[in-house]
Write a structure and sequence with these properties.
This protein has about 290 residues and is of the alpha/beta class. It has 9 helices and 12 strands.
């Protein structure tokens, strides 16, 4: 396919960014200068995904590494799993699952159809990977997943750098539970800053629907010192707390895991969020992306 005014494809002669308008704003695919065929996806300047086409098991972003640990521990190593990804970005985690757990079956729900087209064109998925992509709203797409189909549901949905309100409620988690099979795991990328009201509310909401919870985040985020990401993990079966703790602590950017009584205390009396009261997650301060 030839080059257009808005899109410049990578070539042997030069490595150039790909810039194109998508439904959610201005998308940029920026080459990673340190890795031969790696790219970072930004939407309106906010980093969304990092993909290494030569090494899809490489996870650059801190929160994606933490979700990668969840993927690694959701079943014995190498065993195929069924995964639903709410939010696609550049399909980083779907590629990771396909690389580390061959023959897995995955559904990606990404509302931004223009973004899906851009990523498919510039960063093609492995033709042998069992990945189905639906360009619909995340909650609507989740509703189409067969009952008890998934081993893992991952929520990583942002619109304008904020998680939409209808993906933060107990009613939304009822749909997650419906899609999960027995012992299935739910993992969500959450973003918040001081005073952490959104994060506390999301923990309380998950606790109203799941028996076992864990939260993984940078200690400074947990202390309310700065805005950042936290990964919430939930299930009705015991979680691999010791191994998740070890992996989070040994990452290049070490994280802390909270669970049990400490996590309950962290909520500070927050109550579960319902559809009626739900609001989008807070917008990150401009300094986060500088």
């Amino acid at each position: 396919m030839g080059k257009s005014r808005n899109t410049r494809r990578r070539s042997a002669a030069a490595v150039e960014a790909v810039v194109e308008a998508v439904d959610g704003g201005l998308a940029q695919l920026v080459p990673d200068p340190d890795r031969g065929r790696a790219w970072t996806l930004l939407i309106d300047g906010a980093p969304q995904s990092h993909v290494d086409l030569d090494d899809p098991a490489y996870l650059s972003f801190e929160y994606q590494r933490r979700l990668g640990h969840v993927i690694d521990l959701v079943a014995p190593p190498g065993r195929p799993v069924r995964v639903v990804h709410l939010g696609g970005g550049a399909f980083t985690l779907a590629r990771y699952v396909a690389a580390t757990r061959p023959r897995s079956t995955q559904q990606v729900v990404e509302r931004d159809a223009a973004l899906v087209q851009l990523v498919r064109r510039e960063l093609p998925l492995d033709a042998n990977a069992r990945i189905r992509v639906r360009s619909v709203d995340a909650r609507d797409g989740l509703g189409k997943v067969p009952e008890a189909w998934a081993d893992l549901v991952i929520a990583d949905v942002f619109s304008g750098a904020r998680t939409p309100a209808h993906l933060t409620s107990t009613e939304f988690l009822d749909e997650v539970r419906r899609a999960l099979g027995p012992g299935g795991v739910y993992a969500a990328n959450l973003a918040d800053g001081p005073p952490l009201a959104h994060l506390r509310g999301q923990i309380a909401t998950a606790a109203a629907r799941f028996a076992e919870l864990a939260l993984v985040a940078d200690p400074a985020v947990l202390r309310g010192k700065r805005f950042g990401n936290a990964v919430l993990v939930a299930s009705d079966r015991p979680l691999p707390i010791a191994e998740l703790t070890r992996r989070a602590a040994s990452d290049p950017h070490p994280a802390r895991l909270e669970h049990g009584r400490q996590l309950t205390d962290f909520t500070g009396g927050a109550v579960p969020v319902t559809d009626e009261a739900a609001v989008a997650s807070p917008a990150p301060p401009p300094s986060v992306f500088r």
